[in-house]
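Postdoc handover notes: sequence design on the structure in folder B. Input tokens:
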């Protein structure tokens, strides 16, 4: 699941980024409204967390702008504003849920799951991905092949999700590093190759038809036929 976290307080952003990644989300971050608007306009996110006290604009204005741009993903408002009027305004102006600071991480994660489960008009992404006999349950963070469960780490699941979303399309190591690990410039690392090797052993093992293919000198592709 791809999540956009819009939060200008560095400590909270860092804490939420680590916690959400550990919970299986693929997280992009923004510390101001301008960056958030650009990211939301250029990418597809399953859900957004938006703080209202941004340095360059009010979070409500950002949410309204994103709705005008056609962003339909559910929005969880995260704010220190606790009054009833603030909560009502946030929900009436495009927010789907409202959580006040300080907050419990368990409650935030539960609210995110509820918004994703609720779906409705705002939902733009499926909760399952299927490529041939490989299936991913994006809510439960579970993967199966031919009906048998795959024991994946959180990072392996995120990598497999990215390959499934791009099934049939060659993705380079730089693209994988950017989208899965959040690295904008390819460093001198073999982290992608190591994870692909381990993932292939789980997905394509035990005599299964090979789905994860190496395109020598280019990258990798998950074959969809």
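Designed sequence:
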């Amino acid at each position: 699941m791809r999540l956009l976290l819009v939060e200008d307080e560095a400590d909270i952003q860092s804490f939420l980024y680590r916690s959400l990644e550990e919970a299986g989300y693929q997280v992009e971050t923004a510390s101001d409204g301008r960056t958030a608007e650009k990211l939301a306009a250029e990418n597809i996110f399953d859900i957004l967390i938006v703080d209202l006290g941004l340095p360059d604009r009010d979070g409500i204005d950002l949410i309204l702008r994103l709705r005008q741009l056609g962003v339909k993903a559910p929005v969880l408002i995260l704010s220190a504003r606790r009054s009833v009027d603030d909560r009502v305004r946030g929900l009436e102006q495009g927010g789907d849920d409202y959580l006040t600071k300080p907050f419990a991480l368990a409650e935030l994660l539960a609210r995110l799951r509820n918004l994703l489960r609720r779906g409705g008009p705002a939902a733009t992404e499926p909760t399952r991905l299927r490529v041939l006999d490989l299936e991913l349950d994006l809510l439960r963070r579970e993967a199966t092949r031919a009906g048998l469960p795959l024991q994946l780490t959180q990072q392996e699941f995120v990598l497999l999700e990215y390959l499934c979303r791009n099934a049939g399309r060659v993705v380079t190591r730089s693209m994988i590093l950017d989208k899965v690990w959040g690295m904008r410039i390819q460093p001198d690392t073999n982290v992608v190759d190591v994870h692909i090797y381990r993932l292939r052993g789980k997905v394509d093992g035990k005599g299964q038809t090979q789905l994860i293919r190496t395109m020598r000198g280019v990258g990798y592709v998950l074959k969809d036929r």
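Context for whoever picks this up: The chain has two domains: 2-122, 128-222. Don't rerun without checking with the PI first.
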